[in-house]
Design goal:
This protein has one domain. The protein is about 65% helix and about 0% strand. The chain is built from 9 helices and no strands. The chain has helices at about 1-20, 25-45, 55-70, 75-85, 85-90, 95-110, 125-140, 145-170, 195-215. The protein is globular. The protein starts with a helix and ends in a 10-residue tail after the last helix.
């Protein structure tokens, strides 16, 4: 069962990466290199050094997050957001359902603390469960106003940030605030370094991109007299 959980996680990462880079060769090459570098470094135990400053594991998540946010105003990203149906960025957040199930399975196996699952202080699964209803009602049917989608995105960012903070404070570092057994050191190993270095920044980026799309959403025109 341990291997099965790991394989499901790897499959999820590869599927989401493929969706992200579909027909975008340059992004695909860059992402493949990044995921490969993370895998190699994690395999060598690079991220298990929790004493170094700045924290290596934190950098693994911050670097792709900053790069992704800096790309938002670029021509390529503006074009991507303009031609991508806005409901898709919201629907994609449903991947967090599977991710939360994986975290729960890791806790059951004794490889991750319950702190970072829906049995602890992680309510991120709510964003995954509401992604399709929000995308459908706000974008597809336009039954709900755009501000509902924006509020949902902001809530998703805050909930995800809450998970990140708790995971960071449960690492075996000098700043550890949650002494759990086990700790969240699993995140520094392969394949779960991809959660830190890809899935979390990806979720943040989806929220940011969706907020941009909703802000640009044209208002319904008044009927002709």
């Amino acid at each position: 069962m341990t291997l099965a959980v790991d394989l499901v996680f790897i499959a999820q990462v590869l599927v989401l990466a493929a969706i992200l880079v579909w027909r975008r060769a340059q992004v695909g090459v860059g992402l493949a290199i990044w995921l490969g570098v993370l895998a190699v470094l994690a395999g060598q135990g690079y991220f298990l050094d929790f004493e170094s400053m700045p924290p290596r594991l934190a950098l693994a998540g911050l670097l792709p997050l900053v790069v992704g946010l800096l790309m938002l105003p670029t021509h390529g990203t503006r074009h991507f957001l303009a031609v991508t149906p806005p409901e898709r960025l919201i629907y994609l957040q449903s991947f967090r359902i599977l991710m939360e199930i994986i975290l729960w399975a890791l806790a059951v196996q004794g490889r991750a603390p319950k702190l970072v699952t829906f049995e602890g202080r992680n309510i991120d699964i709510l964003i995954g469960l509401t992604a399709i209803p929000v995308g459908w009602m706000v974008i597809e049917r336009r039954a709900w106003p755009a501000w509902v989608g924006s509020a949902w995105n902001v809530a998703g960012i805050l909930i995800l940030a809450n998970v990140v903070v708790h995971a960071q404070l449960a690492l075996p570092t000098p700043f550890r605030a949650f002494v759990t057994e086990p700790s969240t050191a699993l995140l520094a190993t392969f394949p779960y370094i991809w959660l830190v270095g890809f899935l979390v920044p990806f979720a943040f980026w989806l929220h940011a991109g969706s907020l941009v799309q909703l802000a640009r959403r044209p208002r319904a025109s008044a009927p002709a007299a």
